[in-house]
Amino acid sequence: MSFINLPDGKTITLDDSVSDFLQCGVVFIEQVKIADGERVQKEIAEFSQTLQTVFANLKPSEIPGLAEARKLYRATGVDPTRTRPSSEALLRRVLKGNDLYKISNAVDMCNLASLEFLLPIGMYDYNKIEGDITLRKGKSGEEYAGIRKGPVHLEGRLGLFDSVGGFGSPTSDSLRTSVCEETTSLLAIIMSTTSFKKERLIENSAHFAQLAAKYCFATRSWHTLLPEE
Length: 229
Hints:
Order of helices and strands: EEEHHHHEEEEEEEHE
CATH class: Alpha Beta
Helix content: 25-40%
Number of strands: 11
């Protein structure tokens, strides 16, 4: 197992069940203000047009940037052509010419980052997480209520767990730790395999913090890799 300490002393641990294939960019963001996402939605619209041009007439399997998230899914025994990584689901929606759901500045900002990185990103209201955090494969019967959907089943799949239970995965975040108008602190987990370049994951983590400052008025942030270099 490997772990890191967050600024407030809580730990995030990579369990042995996932440590051989998983690495994460961890971003802790404080003093955010949740508002409408009008400003970031403009950037999403512009970037979506760019993606539609760059990937015109390409099948998802032909888009190099999607290979990493698919590789991560296969490492956990999940078929990514049946259960889509969140980043691929967003890109597919954009390439079809459909707008992304407009939720809030924080959620929309996270969607923009996922489109830019083409990696799954879990983002949570940090104050709703109970105790220390572990990334591991789910056990029999473990699940959580998803956002705008039924239960998300975690058995045999990569998930994030606190003292209450599961609250996140590369596919969908939980209703329990979802961002709302009262959210003031965020925790973001950018997920990749261990073969993904660490320098790039560090850059992605720093960029995510910059987006939070730009669009969510965050005044303090901290980021690192798990496992640390």
